[in-house]
Design brief:
Elements lengths: L7 E6 L11 E5 L6 E4 L3 H10 L7 E5 L7 H6 L6 H9 L4 H11 L7 H6 L11 H16 L4 E3 L2 H4 L11 E5 L2 H7 L12 H16 L7 H9 L4 H8 L3 H6 L2 H7 L3 H4 L5
Parallel strand pairs: 1-4, 4-6, 5-6
Antiparallel strand pairs: 1-2, 2-3
Length: 271
């Protein structure tokens, strides 16, 4: 990792649980000071924290580990307009994620993947049994309210629908990422670190050591211990997301949309 653009980087390991406070982890890194991590966020807390970050005069780059949109094929199957806001409104028309998944499976049991899921090698389709709650809550409870904020830019889709003013004028950027994809892109092992046995713990220790071996990246002692001790790997995942922050900040998002038409609706996974 080269010296990152000035700003504050945040990695959010997300949860679609009804009571997600213990499961949503946010790691933060300035590019100069060691990274920290904390949990205790509801979905509303997360939205408000992202929104408030626009008030300190610095640039903030947020990466969240959850889908920001759905495959074009799924939208076409359900007669949803092929637009980002139309997708968010359609999802919000259901009372909860289970009602949405039931409606989808009445029409088709196929679980399509987005083009970017294939490119980034994300583990699951957004509607997969292990993902659907996370997908629905990310899009309805977090992305949809953020999309209404002029001080926040959700990338890359926000550019395609003129969600906000030009990139240089918005100091809070929010994008989708995936810890497994980040590790894979760097040639690091992306499995085996979640669990309670000694091998799982050793894998977490190895990943933390690798993270601290990246040029310019460091982790405070408490966060390092938490990442190693947490058997579910949530704290560690939030730290892994920080690796993609500088690349996210430096991406030419407008060029990305010109080169990939599907990204205007399906979104992008920044790794």
């Amino acid at each position: 990792m080269s010296s990152p653009p000035d700003g504050v980087y945040h990695g959010v390991d997300f949860s679609g649980a009804k009571r997600p406070r213990s499961k949503i982890w946010v790691s933060t890194w300035t590019g100069r000071d060691p990274a920290t991590t904390r949990n205790g966020f509801s979905h509303l807390d997360l939205v408000e924290t992202i929104h408030r970050s626009s008030s300190d005069g610095r640039r903030h780059f947020w990466l969240i580990d959850a889908p920001f949109n759905l495959p074009l094929e799924q939208l076409e199957t359900h007669g949803v307009e092929l637009g980002w806001h139309a997708t968010l409104d359609w999802l919000a028309s259901f009372d909860d994620p289970r009602a949405w998944r039931r409606a989808c499976r009445k029409v088709s049991r196929v679980e399509p993947r987005r083009e970017i899921d294939r490119k980034a090698h994300t583990p699951f389709s957004p509607i997969n049994l292990r993902m659907f709650k996370q997908s629905w809550h990310c899009m309805v409870s977090v992305v949809r309210p953020l999309a209404a904020e002029s001080s926040v830019l959700v990338l890359p889709m926000g550019l395609s629908e003129n969600q906000a003013s030009p990139l240089v004028d918005v100091h809070v950027w929010v994008g989708e990422s995936c810890p497994s994809s980040i590790l894979r892109a760097r040639g690091w092992k992306n499995t085996g670190y979640k669990g309670t046995n000694n091998a799982n713990r050793s894998a977490r220790e190895d990943l933390v050591a690798r993270l601290q071996g990246v040029n310019g990246f460091d982790i405070v002692d408490d966060a390092r211990r938490t990442a190693i001790e947490d058997p579910e790997g949530d704290a560690l995942d939030s730290l892994i997301l920080l690796l993609a922050g500088p690349g996210f900040a430096a991406t030419d998002h407008e060029a990305l949309l010109r080169e990939d038409e599907r990204a205007k609706v399906e979104g992008w996974v920044y790794v």
